[in-house]
TrEMBL record:
Keywords: ATP-binding, Nucleotide-binding, Transport. Belongs to the ABC transporter superfamily. This is Putative ABC transporter ATP-binding protein YfiL. The keyword Lyase does not apply. It holds the Pfam family ABC_tran. It comes from Petrimonas mucosa.
Length: 263
């Protein structure tokens, strides 16, 4: 059997006395779209920083594409594309100019870089905007350019940290559709970190519920509620679902008829 693309084992990160990530164990297979779902402050970004070799674990191990991000951070960055909440671009350059710049930084020859930049702009639906300076892009356009920027080096894995923040609903739909097709058509492994239950539900094969540094449950969407609410279901005789997860773990309350459609 193929070994997992991302393998996290008993991973802990402490900042002084505060534990941001607490004994996390998780495997993500090749081509899988995995959602790391948790409220603000759960430890999602800290986990991503450890996967990228940008901060060191306090204890435990991480492997990405068979590499150790602590001792091989450059090799990891070569194979993993990371899209943060807000990507920094040169605002006075156009989309293609920004992408070609990234390609050069990744040692891609100029001729290939240009061809790849235009192909990716088409892939993310920005081919109609090639002469526009990025400073004039909308938030959704910047994120789509961010995705192209991540893809220019042909990564095996892409890690997206709250990528839809500030994008309008139709932009979000397009962006999520793109992520799914990338995974399906190109076999890219995707780690999608978000606090939006419904977005994660739309695109992810498997989801981990991450709260206060701990992974409470993981699995496909339908099995999550069962894992988290088995006892309550037995006591109350009703079926629990995703909305219940949202209210209990993200809002700190329980779902009732007054709030049942606002997640
Ligand atoms: N450098 C740091 N020093 C001290 N505490 C930190 C540091 N970085 C993060 N934390 C704390 O660790 C916890 C987890 O933060 P993290 O950013 O990983 O959460 P998150 O799930 O990504 O949330 P958000 O979506 O709000 O960024 C938070 O309580 C945060 O305040």
């Amino acid at each position: 059997m193929q070994s997992p693309t991302i393998e996290i084992c008993n991973l802990t990160k402490k900042y002084g006395d505060f534990t941001a990530v607490d004994n996390l164990t998780l495997s993500i297979g090749k081509g899988e779209v995995f959602g790391l779902l948790g409220p603000n402050g759960a430890g999602k970004s800290t986990t991503i920083l450890m996967l990228m070799g940008l901060t060191e674990p306090t204890s435990g191990t991480v492997q990405v594409c068979g590499l150790n991000p602590v001792s091989q951070p450059i090799e990891v960055k070569r194979r993993v594309g990371y899209l943060p909440e807000d990507v920094g671009f040169y605002d006075d350059l156009t989309g293609p100019e920004n992408l070609i710049y990234t390609a050069r930084l990744n040692a891609i020859p100029d001729k290939d870089a240009e061809e790849r930049a235009f192909r990716l702009l088409e892939r993310v639906g920005l081919d109609g905007e090639i002469n526009k300076k990025v400073g004039k892009y909308s938030r959704g356009m910047r994120q789509r350019l961010g995705l192209a920027d991540v893809l220019i080096k042909n990564p095996e894995v892409i890690i997206l940290d709250e990528p839809t923040l500030g994008i309008d609903p139709s932009g979000i739909r397009d962006f999520l559709g793109l992520i799914v097709s990338l995974s399906r058509e190109e076999g890219i492994t995707v780690l999608f970190s978000s606090h939006h239950l419904h977005q994660v539900q739309q695109v992810c094969d498997r989801v981990g519920i991450f709260v206060k540094g701990r992974l409470l449950a993981q699995g496909d969407i339908t099995s999550l509620a069962r894992q988290l609410f088995a006892e309550s279901e037995e006591q109350n005789g009703r079926e629990y679902g995703l909305e219940d997860i949202y209210y209990r773990y993200f809002e700190g309350g329980e779902r009732n008829e007054d709030n049942s459609d606002s997640a």
